[in-house]
Design brief:
Layout: E1 4-6, E2 18-24, H1 28-38, H2 40-46, E3 54-60, E4 65-68, E5 70-72, H3 74-84, H4 87-113, E6 122-126, H5 132-135, E7 143-147, H6 151-159, E8 163-164, E9 177-183, H7 192-202, E10 203-212, H8 217-221, E11 240-242, H9 244-253, E12 256-258, H10 261-273, H11 279-290, E13 294-299
Parallel strand pairs: 6-7, 6-9, 7-8, 9-10
Antiparallel strand pairs: 1-5, 2-3, 3-4, 4-11, 10-13, 12-13
Bound molecules: zinc ion (ZN).
Length: about 300
């Protein structure tokens, strides 16, 4: 198992987990999934790296959390996102999404800007992908920054005129950001607690955070719902599967708290007083405040 390392204990509370699913990466149905997902040709490139490895899912009943016991090591993970995944297809998908959502994204960004009484609101998209969310905003009104590991995506983002912050030189941005967004990121990162430690360094004390992960609530409740498909648990990529409960538990343990319903309403009033109104975001924020794994939070 040269390309993987083992995490037998719960990543949240460190208690021993229960194995709820087990399969060899060389089993036919898992191979079929990987061939379909990555393409047969691409799968052939990394097939060897999966030999003698199990796709195991462990669950912590205390935290209502599932994780993959064997995670790809850094090099394999980097190759997976930077070389193996079809970049052209991923960019086309992101561009399409951008066309559909740019007005909505812009309105989301304005909402953030309106929360602060400063002319320079620093916004970080942590795990920015192709940078399209930031690119939707009016750059004269805020300073967009992206953190991204993939070299191809980084190059693309800087061509959009968005500043890239270097993972190895984050000390420049201590107490710097007013808003940090982590959209579909934390489920991919094996040691996600490191991210929360980083957030604490990068954020100003009134920083607003937004974190969204696939909702694994159903799967965590009922393991018969686990399937080999793109979803809340997914071989190689979705290493962590959160329920709303586990997500809030992690945030609390790491020194954060969910923004309350009352605070959400106040934030929308502030937006309104600055001449903006965003009903769909208000509805979404209220729903997220009570039901989802997309959470706005701040320091405790
Ligand atoms: Zn646990």
């Amino acid at each position: 198992m040269l390309e993987f390392y083992k995490t037998p204990n719960c990543k949240i509370c460190k208690k021993k987990g229960i194995r709820i699913y087990q399969k060899k990466y060389t089993d036919n149905d898992l191979i079929t999934f990987l061939q379909t997902y990555y393409g047969k040709k691409r799968f052939r490139f990394f097939k060897k790296r999966l030999e003698n490895v199990n796709y195991n899912l462990n669950k912590c009943t205390y935290c209502k959390f599932i994780w993959q016991e064997n995670s790809p090591k850094e090099k394999f993970s980097f190759d997976l996102y930077d070389k193996i995944i079809d970049k052209k297809e991923s960019l086309i998908k992101s561009k399409k999404k951008f066309q559909l959502r740019k007005h909505k994204n812009n309105s989301e960004i304005n909402f953030i800007i309106n929360q602060f009484n400063t002319d320079k609101v620093n916004v970080l998209d942590f795990g920015a992908g192709w940078g399209h969310w930031l690119y939707s905003g009016d750059k004269s009104k805020f300073s967009p920054y992206a953190l991204e590991m993939s070299l191809y995506r980084k190059k693309y983002i800087s061509n959009l005129g968005i500043k890239i912050i270097d993972y190895n030189n984050l000390s420049k941005y201590k107490n710097f950001f007013h808003f940090i967004r982590l959209d579909q990121v934390v489920e991919h990162v094996d040691n996600f607690k490191i991210i929360f430690k980083l957030l604490k360094k990068l954020a100003i004390k009134d920083c607003i955070f937004y974190l969204s992960v696939p909702d694994g609530g159903d799967i965590i409740q009922n393991k018969s719902k686990i399937k080999l498909e793109k979803g809340a648990v997914q071989p190689l990529e979705h290493l962590n599967c959160f329920s709303r409960y586990s997500l809030i538990k992690v945030l609390t343990l790491e020194g954060f708290k969910k923004i309350s319903f009352f605070e959400i309403i106040n934030m929308h009033l502030k937006n309104l007083l600055k001449g903006e109104i965003n009903i769909s975001l208000l509805m979404r924020d209220i729903k997220d405040c009570f039901f989802s794994t997309s959470i706005k939070f701040k320091f405790r």
